[in-house]
Amino acid sequence: MTIHQPILDHAAAAPMLRNIEAWCAVNSGSRNLAGLARMADLLANAFAVLPGKLALVEGVPVEVMDAAGSVEAVQHGRSMHLRVRPDAPVQLLLTGHMDTVFAPGDDFDRLDWRAPGVLGGPGVADMKGGLAVMLAALHALEASPLAGRIGYEVVVNADEEVGSPASAPLIAAAARGKRAALTYEPAMTPEGMLAGARPGSGNFSFRITGRAAHAGRNPEDGRNALVAAADLALRLHEARDAGLSVNPARIDGGGPNNVVPAHAVLRVNLRPKSLDDLARAEALIARETAAVGARHDVTIAAHGGFGRPPKALDPAAERLFELVRDCGAALGQQIGWAPSGGVCDGNNIAAAGIPVVDTMGVRGGAIHSHDEYLIVESLAERAMLSTLVLLRLAEGA
Q: Can you give the residue range of the structural domain that contains 212?
């Protein structure tokens, strides 16, 4: 038992499961603005137990390319932003997201007990369970005599699953001047492994414009945009290596069999492990779009960018991980970390120069699938872990 045991018990006793049940009843897919509005209101009501100034913040409109190659502005859901004790000596950032990958009408829309202590459902692990843990830890902190030493900002955004394009400015502003950050993505493994280094991530849409022609009478007069898109997809895919993952994900375009297609849109995700790899990826895109355009006599317009910079473990981040590990050991929890191929808002926080541990959420698994599950006993475990980390930071760790 630590000297903070009463406060840790406070965190463990929070109604986390009840909150998860209420929140997971709301479909909050990243494009479901009505569901996200409902979810934002529920979170604002729940987090209102904390002191400070709470607001629901509109995201900046974001330009996206549709299947026809047109660029239009898309609105995303509101973020919840809470600021508590901005003049306290220790300033922290805590982040999470309310959106899921499950769109309205998805048949994965209810909770079910998979086994004793194992709850399945949309967002139970990623990351409505994490939001419940965050709230429990902050509520417990407020009951501690050390609370006055810590100020914090909380950002819960509504577009993390699509790369946080609308909320990135809010996260960057909230990160400024912070000593450390905690993000409540689920643990990387059911055993509780944390994610350490992460690659960056860039999403690109390539609009290819060729020339239509009759496929039988004069195909030589056409410029096949679909073939050019396929050529570009193969070239990018073949350039992948240990430092750069490339995933051509979709081609929109084509039409009747007797028409040479004049338009296509290729979607690609690229994940560079380092800033050098990111620079190589940018050069690759420029080089191959020019080569494919010249070979097929088509015009290619690229839209998108690297919204998640690579996240390395620098000495400050390593010290924060070690603090989390030591707090886990004090609670009888074995905490380790390893590189991950996934990305999250932790990438953006680290890019702002702030040490961050971004898998402080629940233990569970199968996220982004209909098999997603939460290990319920991890709610109390992780709430106590976060609370102890906050208390140790307040003490000067």
A: 201-308
Residues 80 and 93 in one domain: yes
pLDDT in tens, 297-335: 999 999 999 999 999 999 999 999 999 999 999 999 999
Residue 66 vs residues 25, 50, 147, 191, 206: alpha-carbon distances, Å: 30, 41, 48, 40, 11
Question: Domain ends where: 285, 308, 331?
Answer: 308
State which of 283, 308, 333 marks the end of a domain: 308
41 and 190 share a domain?
yes
CB 84 within 8 A of CB 52: yes
> Do 16 and 162 fall into the same domain?
yes
Q: Among residues 99, 153, 185, 252, which one is catalytic?
A: 99
Letter string b/e over residues 316-340, b meaning 16 or more CB atoms within 10 A of that residue's CB? ebeebbebbbebbebbebebebeeb
Specify whether 374 is located in the same domain as 229: no
Helix (H) or strand (E) holding 131, with range, is: helix 128-142
Catalytic residue list contains 191:
no
Number of domains in the chain: 2
Q: Catalytic residue, from 126, 153, 159, 160: name it.
A: 160
126-171 per-position pLDDT tens digit: 999 999 999 999 999 999 999 999 999 999 999 999 999 999 999 9
- For tokens 């929890």, name the residue: 333
Residues 237 and 320 in one domain: no
Whole-model pTM? 0.95
- Distance (Å, rounded) from C-alpha 229 to C-alpha 209? 10
Helix (H, G, I), strand (E, B) or coil at 203: strand
Q: 377 catalytic, yes or no?
A: no
pLDDT range class, residue 35, cuts 50, 70, 90: very high
